Amino acid sequence: MKLPADHPHTTIQKVAAPRCVIVIDDALPAGKACNAAAVIALTLGERHPYLVGAPLVDAQDVHHPGLIPVGISVLKTSVGQLSKLRADALEKDFDIVGFPVQGQQTKDYAAFRDAVRAVDTRELAYLGVGIVGDNKAVRKLVSDLELMQ
Q1: 3-class state of residue 127 by DSSP
Q2: What's 90's domain CATH number?
Q3: 118 is in which domain, residue-wise?
Q4: What's the structural domain count of the chain?
Q5: What pTM did the predictor assign?
């Protein structure tokens, strides 16, 4: 598929590259950790469309969807540290996407919303947190965290 000339991804926009990281509860089994990271990544992409790069074009001039051009680290920490990390990131005015534990307790989004509504903000526990902000400041915030493997 060839994109029309006026499509927003036919030219590369020069946007100051922020740092984008996802931090996952290190106690989650691999499948649930991948699910949490995917849910957070989709929402980050919707909130920050410039994080989706221009389409990739192969040798036959076939266009493939663009991927994130700045990279995205997936890190790990304890569930207890996720709430603190989220609070620290909010204090620094970063954009945050949190995935509360209730998100993996049901497949019904309305039930998920109702479960979150029943919990005080300070009491929410997270399976993962996505953070977008100034490159150096985000690096400093997550410098002690290990890469998810």
Answers
A1: strand
A2: 3.40.1490.10
A3: 19-147
A4: 1
A5: 0.84
